[in-house]
Design a protein that fits this description.
Two copies of one chain form a homodimer. Chain A has 19 helices and 19 strands. With 547 residues, the first copy, chain A, is an alpha/beta fold. Chain A has three domains: 78 residues, no CATH class; 160 residues, Aspartate Aminotransferase, domain 1 (Alpha-Beta Complex), CATH 3.90.1150; 224 residues, 3-Layer(aba) Sandwich (Aspartate Aminotransferase, domain 2), CATH 3.40.640. In chain A, strands 6, 7, 8, 9, 10, 11, 12 and 13 form an eight-stranded mixed beta sheet that branches. A four-stranded antiparallel beta sheet of chain A has the order 3-2-1-4, with helices on both faces. A three-stranded antiparallel beta sheet of chain A has the order 15-19-18. In chain A, α13 links the parallel β11 and β12. In chain A, α8 runs parallel beside α15. In chain A, 55% of the residues are buried. Chains A and B meet through α1, α3, α5, α9 and α10 of A and α1, α3, α5, α9 and α10 of B.
């Protein structure tokens, strides 16, 4: 059961040779019929003379054998093509290489550095951030309820654990919860949103999810449709967080990029939105717009005016709004303030207050950084009730998000209140994390801006800097020789020479001819300083080498 | 911004009236153009005369106004049609109604019963099963590492917690893990599989997942493709677990049902497999086969001979095998034994030992019943390396499964060993759960078989009975009147009259003209006895009423 891809020496195109079928098939037909179909015809008795036939064809010297493949049921020829297209740079080849280097170092390999610094992913605890005690004490009690009586945890921790357990089937976090989450926790989230925005939030619109990415994918999925023979399109910022490009590729949805304005602190410009929509509408039905605020990878915090302009634009074109607001607690710059899309929309009045919106939040970011627990929520605003019912139905087949992720959500949505036993410690820990992130945000932008060939916007919020680098022409040439994009080439050089792992701008998108990278601001201050010093040294050497 | 669906009184077909567009559009065109496209043309300035125009048309008395809709960005007209098709009966309308009844009871409603018994879902802890201490002590330590020093937990618990934390970034379960899971735990799973099967398992082929459903969907997704203009098809058993029908609908994959043989203890028959494949091949490329063993909802445990026949069939037709083996620990009947597909395939030698297979396992079932933690794994056997790389890439965009779900997987894959401090208690707890399930499995089948009009196969394994019921013709008529399938009608009657929530056979599929339902065997013995007594009484009354 095998087949070969042969390249015709004269014609310059490829054939699939299927032994037993007594014929060759062109590559375009191959794509049509699929390896599986062909090889199924082969199975059983039809298969005897395969090697003899193949040798005859090769002996006639008309073909080169490109590759012989076992005819697997799933091959690169018949796999879901959208999965092949999908890219997710935050965990791409560079990160794989970083993992290999770590293993090499462990085995005693000699390198010009002693450790890998993973500045590629917003993974706070991995970079030394300490968990919030309140969250962890509650988790420790709900997983092992004897701790409620036996431990010396504060009373509010114990009460919270009791409340969560009472909301679980059989009073165990081992039970399935409702698919959209535990009702009590959904109510707490709605109260949190009301406090944040000063406007009503209906807990029935709150869905707990196993991380914001899950919720985003659930909502994106609603748009898969070929109306009028055209696919649906979704507008996303460029640069963007690659979950969006990956999910759009996976779902066969069209990615309609709109550029953020680097010169205006990565803000959004209405004219650019219009340009992007007009361009996109040529080949798809543009139906939704994604906004990431505070921005990832770009670190901007949108002004209220900017949000209003986006809402008007979306209303004018009847676009559904995805408000990715997972960094809502991460705002550092003086004068910057987080406004939720829901708040702004609501305060703009009708028709804007009636627009459809999904807003996403996560326990992985903010001051918590509990990425591994997989907890988050989405608020679904102004959905058609039938559409919402269908979304809930789709979610239900996946049973439920992690009960412990939900427990963490509860601690975030309803943190200790003033006067409660855990309040002081909770506030101290939260403040300390956010102040330190603030300091690091400033430190990183300042350092980059002192480096020749670097230009870095202020990190107003989120957890990343996204500086632009000037690439010497010789480096661009060397990258071309290496078959890599210039920023990817730079990032690999940085990794191999210093152990610093960043993500090149290519993974997020950038204006053609510009080069960027994303680094987190998460290494603890001493390590961050070390990283920036090493970075500086590398960059000088790199620039010299390629000038 | 609204539009109306009008029905022409003379022609008997519907129009979409779009104010501002100055024309009506037939329903088929509406489907083509989508509400959004139409309503987008409406937005802004074009909208002034809408109500005037509408009144004119209605005044001409040619149309009935079927409904006026706000032109949402996502409507039932332009939503992903696959999401509308998707059904998941285990959490369907019956379960929603059960939840409402629970709330009504809480509010003091007078009902002929005092509580709802949820026998609809395999949710062990919710039905009173006690968590395994070892798992929970480990979780309590990894979430709050101070417990390692401060608690009086056994030494092996503390060591396990240390091992898991050492395998986490920053020694915190709040860090992201690798997308396919923590390496140490993947190695432990491979060792578990080796002990189970007596054959090599490569930890690189083990992927940790947030519940088996996630893994199953990840693999099903590989098959989305239109080769030769035909969609891919996947063979699934009828009756089946509705995650499969739901996911196939969601992905636009064709569901090719093969009937299990109720008279042969729900075994598989090669002739039926061939019939199903031949039938399915007419309109799609059949590329994979799903087997659930032990069976859900049917409770059978396949014999080794049966598995061999399936493997041969799959090999002959080059089908990828999905082996849903999440109930591998749940085998009760004398003479029944669990054989993994991988073990059987391996021992059959080539070409069978080279076939592609994905096997799924979960911490939600077995003796653990930790549904809420969302932990599981899949073993990917004989994958094309490029296909595997693409699957891993797709998984990476979702970051990682819950670290705490993974910690639970570790405790299941590597339970306490003889001689270790937790071993005796762990064995006692495990044995007690499995023995009790064994007793309940027998009790439920015996009771059903004593009831008139019931026929129930032995529950050899898993957590469910799937009895057949004879429906009196008058009941079938009454169901028709109520617009319900007869088994759905029966299940609703049962729920409203007794508070017992089961899932009708329609949700799983059954041979036309037969009626079944699925009930779990999970209520604790006393409650199960009570449930069966109530059930018996209801069934007698129901039969009398409709005879």
């Amino acid at each position: 059961m095998s087949y070969c891809v042969l390249r015709s020496k004269s014609a310059g195109y490829s054939y699939l040779f299927v032994p037993g079928l007594h014929k060759t098939i062109s590559m375009s037909s191959l794509k049509m019929i699929g390896g599986v179909v062909a090889s199924r015809r082969l199975s059983g008795k039809a298969l005897r003379s395969q090697s003899a036939e193949l040798s005859v064809l090769l002996a006639q010297n008309k073909f080169t054998n490109l590759r012989t493949m076992a005819s697997k049921a799933v091959t690169m020829e018949n796999i879901n093509p959208n999965i092949v297209k999908l890219e997710y740079a935050v965990r791409g080849p560079l990160v794989t290489r970083a993992g290999e280097i770590e293993k090499e170092l462990l085995k005693g390999a000699s390198k010009p550095f002693k450790r890998v610094i993973k500045a590629n992913i917003g993974d706070a605890h991995a970079m030394g951030q300490v968990p919030i005690t309140f969250i962890r004490q509650v988790l420790s009690c709900v997983t092992y309820p004897e701790n409620i009586d036996k431990s010396d945890f504060p009373e509010d921790v114990k009460q919270r654990a009791r409340d969560i357990l009472n909301a679980c089937g059989g009073k165990s976090v081992g039970s399935y919860t409702m698919s959209h989450g535990i009702e009590m926790i959904r109510r707490h989230v709605a109260e949190y949103i009301e406090r944040r925005d000063g406007h009503k939030s209906d807990w029935n619109n709150v869905v707990l999810v196993g991380g914001a990415s899950n919720g985003i994918k659930n909502c994106l999925q609603l748009f898969i449709n070929d109306l009028d023979g055209k696919p649906s399109g979704v507008m996303i910022p460029i640069p963007q967080y690659p979950l969006y490009s990956a999910s759009l590729a996976e779902y066969g949805l069209e990615q309609i990029g709109y550029y953020l304005d680097e010169d205006k602190q990565w803000g959004l410009d209405s004219a650019e939105l219009e340009r992007s929509l007009t361009e996109g509408s040529k080949h798809c039905n543009v139906r939704a717009i994604v906004i990431i605020n505070p921005g990832n990878p770009t670190g901007q915090v949108l002004t209220r005016e900017n949000i209003e302009a986006i809402v008007k634009f979306a209303s004018e074109h009847n676009l559904f709004i995805f408000a990715d607001e997972v960094y809502q607690d991460n705002v550092y710059a003086e004068g910057s303030k987080f406004f939720s899309f829901k708040k702004v929309m609501t305060e703009m009045g009708e028709p804007y207050s009636k627009m459809e919106l999904a807003s996403f939040m996560s326990v992985s970011k903010g001051y918590m950084g509990e990425c591994g627990l997989r907890g988050g929520w989405m608020e679904l605003v102004n959905f058609d009730p039938d559409v919402k019912a269908n979304l809930f139905k789709a979610i239900s087949a996946m049973l439920c998000p992690s009960s412990l992720g939900q427990a963490a959500v509860d601690c975030v949505a309803k943190p200790p209140a003033p006067g409660e036993a855990s309040y002081d410690l909770w506030l101290k820990e939260k403040t300390s994390v956010l102040q330190s992130l603030d300091k690091r945000a400033k430190m990183i932008a300042e350092t980059f801006n002192q480096m020749e060939g670097f230009k870095c916007n202020i990190v107003q919020g989120a957890m990343y800097a996204f500086p632009q680098i000037t690439m010497p022409p010789k480096a661009i040439e060397a990258a071309k020789q290496a078959g890599k994009a210039p920023d990817v080439f730079y990032a690999f050089q940085l990794l191999e020479n210093t152990g610093i792992c960043i993500v090149p701008g290519t993974g997020f998108g950038q204006r053609p001819g510009t080069y960027h990278f994303r680094t987190t601001i998460l290494p603890q201050p001493a390590l961050l300083q070390e990283m920036l010093d090493i970075f500086k040294g590398f960059h000088e050497k790199f620039t010299k080498e390629y000038s």
